[in-house]
Amino acid sequence: MLEVIPMLEYLPQALSNLSAASNIVKAMLELRDSKQLNSKVIELQQVIISAQQQVLSGQSEQMSLSAKVQELEKECARLKDWSTEKERYLRREIGEGVFAYVANDAIGNLQSAHKLCCNCFDKTVKSTLQQTREPQRMIVLVCPNGCPKLVFTHYL
């Protein structure tokens, strides 16, 4: 129904223009003077062009709204999928004061568990943390989306 509404607001004006065109044609049929006839032809052309512009404007707006509806439907589907996916993870402290989302079924050593960035996860983005080491035996988890690095000395 959303796709029809924008077109309806332009329809009365376009029909009004076409009605005016009909009246102009009737007046043209009664004229015998070529100057008056040419004047009415020009007036008729202007009314027809105006009606065309109204219809084209309505079609353009309808296409724009249709594209927006499709975009919103895709986003809705993505969020529904995310809702299901996020149930598989739990926010856990993996190092002293360091948190990440870890799969619910992760068992054993947290170092080898698949970990997701908390910042990204909270923004409905699944971003895997990559582990590296820095000097002084510091463990660093890096988010590929540029979130702050997580630095700690050992896993809990």
Question: Would you give an account of this structure?
Answer:
It is a single chain. This protein has 156 residues and is α+β, with helices and mostly antiparallel strands. It folds into two domains: 5-85; 88-152, no CATH class. Helix content is 54%, strand content 18%. The chain is built from three helices and six strands; from the N terminus they run ααβββαβββ. The chain has a three-stranded antiparallel sheet. Strand 5 (138-142) and strand 6 form a beta hairpin. Helix 1 (5-30) runs antiparallel to helix 2 (34-86). The longest helix has 53 residues, at 34-86. The mean pLDDT is 83.
Topology:
Layout: H1 5-30, H2 34-86, E1 89-95, E2 98-103, E3 115-116, H3 118-122, E4 130-134, E5 138-142, E6 150-152
Antiparallel strand pairs: 1-2, 2-3, 4-5, 5-6
Helix pairs in contact: 1-2
